[in-house]
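Run log, item B.
One chain of 62 residues. Sequence copied directly from the ordering sheet:
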Amino acid sequence: MYANARWHAEGLRWIGSLFLGAADYLERAGDGEAPWEPLPPHLAHAADSIDEVRNRILSRYY
């Protein structure tokens, strides 16, 4: 096996381990209840405002 091919294979294994670690973390984090369900009134209003701004941007530029 060529040295470059071995180096690339090790790099791909390392990148794969990062993805695997991230997936494990997300699975553990997603097991619990959603902490903000239902949203408190002050956050619900903020979410509506953010959605309104997002829709304005998308309708203007796309």
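Observations after the first pass:
- Residues 3-29 form the longest helix (27 residues).
- The mean pLDDT is 80.
Flagged for discussion on Thursday.
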